[in-house]
């Protein structure tokens, strides 16, 4: 699939995910079909094989997050669809970057919503209970951070952009660090 088209589909998925907290199946199926067609065009049946392998790896690596209720089904299908478009190797990097980006997005979200200290309190109580050897689960209340839903499609979009366009994060961070030390 043209990388521009993949990014365009992911932008659309991100907007819908933020707005409605759902990712339409038609969008996911479109990404899969166009990704497999493009892979066939570029590399014949080998391309289709690597697209199906990328889909399978993306689905299998993300399925535990769906089972443990930390990601929705649409996010899992979107990762798998991206895997069908970019192949097996790239999807593993996209998943890694998605998790890192989603972590920072969640921290920002918690701070904006005012849930950060409540979450820290719940984690501290749980940790102290585990270290003391007894169960100390503090159930979430209505409006608590543990019950909040966060859209993952923007993180998938940013991670895909980084991997597909081969953004050199190490060089970028090193440049920022150098500029910071030069001026401060």
Explain the overall architecture.
The chain has 184 residues and is mainly alpha-helical. It has seven helices and no strands. It has helices spanning 3-20, 25-67, 73-86, 88-113, 116-132, 153-164, 169-183. Helix 1 packs antiparallel against helix 6 (153-164). The model has no long low-confidence stretch (mean pLDDT 85).
Mind describing the biggest β-sheet? none
* Rg computed from alpha carbons, rounded to a whole number of angstroms: 19 Å
Shape, per Cα inertia axes: elongated
Q: Which spans have pLDDT < 50 for at least 5 consecutive residues?
A: none
Q: What's the helical proportion of residues?
A: over 70%
Give average pLDDT, whole number.
85
Total DSSP E strands: 0
* Number of structurally distinct domains: 1
SS field, number of helical segments: 7
Relative strand content: under 5%
End-to-end span in angstroms? 45 Å
């Amino acid at each position: 699939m043209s990388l521009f088209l993949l990014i365009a589909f992911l932008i659309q998925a991100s907007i819908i995910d933020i707005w409605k907290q759902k990712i339409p199946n038609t969008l996911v199926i479109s990404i899969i079909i166009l990704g497999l067609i493009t892979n066939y065009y570029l590399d014949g049946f080998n391309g289709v094989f690597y697209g199906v392998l990328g889909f399978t790896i993306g689905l299998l690596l993300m399925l535990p997050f769906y089972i443990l209720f930390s990601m929705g089904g649409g996010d899992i299908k979107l990762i798998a669809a991206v895997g069908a478009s970019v192949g097996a190797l790239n999807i593993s990097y996209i998943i890694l970057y998605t998790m890192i980006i989603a972590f920072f997005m969640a921290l920002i979200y918690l701070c904006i919503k005012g849930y950060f200290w409540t979450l820290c309190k719940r984690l501290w109580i749980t940790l102290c209970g585990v270290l003391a050897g007894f169960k100390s689960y503090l159930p979430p209340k209505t409006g608590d951070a543990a019950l909040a839903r966060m859209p993952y499609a923007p993180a998938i979009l940013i991670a895909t952009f980084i991997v597909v366009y081969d953004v050199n994060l190490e060089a970028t961070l090193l440049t920022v660090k150098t500029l910071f030390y030069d001026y401060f």
